[in-house]
Amino acid sequence: MPHEENKLRDIAVTYRAATLPSTELLSGQFRALLNAGLQLGLSLSRVSALLAEVIREKLPLEVAEGYATADEGLTTLLGAEGGCVGVEKARQLFRRPQPVTRQALAHQIRQGNVLAYRSGGGDYLVPVWQFRPEGGCWHGLPEVLAAIRAHLGEGPLTAFAFLLQAHPLTGGRPPLEALRAGRLEEVLAAVEADAR
């Protein structure tokens, strides 16, 4: 689909701004470009890759400089929605009022039922946003995590990025919000759409 990809690149380059655009303007432009790419028959992942290339190569330097470094991106993901905690605190959040053992929580992490990021020191950082206020994970989270691993890959941050970033199939809101609202099928459909 080189012709379609070149057409999308041309459309994206026309969105140059003379001054630093607002976040709302960029959001609207990205939505329009996403729709254009999908209408051209490109996959969501290919559209994302092409837009990233255009941003790096073609947009004015002021816009490109506004993007986070890998370290800043990692910090943002791990700090989102209340951030991450160590296993000690996570085991209390997982089951209230009586916490589970460290081994039980580690087993849930290894089984893929609880999301965690392994730090450079080997410790687990467990995002608090996956736990319901009364304890336990949000209904459907293990299924969503399994679908992400099966369709999008097993990268250590793939699930974080997918669940925390706005998605067109979850009303332009993060899939985590849809999961919290009980819209599991919507979130699973978004995972499958990203795999195409």
What does this structure look like?
- This protein is mainly α.
- The protein folds into 2 domains: 2-64, no CATH class; 69-196, no CATH class.
- Helices cover 57% and strands 4% of the residues.
- It is built from 11 helices and 3 strands; from the N terminus they run αααααβααββαααα.
- It has helices at residues 2-13, 23-39, 44-57, 61-64, 70-79, 87-94, 102-111, 141-152, 158-164, 175-180, 184-195; strands spanning 84-85, 117-118, 124-127.
- Strands 1-3-2 form a 3-stranded antiparallel sheet.
- Strand 2 (117-118) and strand 3 form a beta hairpin.
- Helix 1 (2-13) crosses helix 3 (44-57), helix 2 (23-39) packs across helix 3 (44-57) and helix 6 (87-94) crosses helix 7 (102-111).
- The longest helix is centred in the first third of the chain and has 17 residues, at 23-39.
- It is elongated and about 60 Å long.
- The protein starts with a helix and ends with a helix.
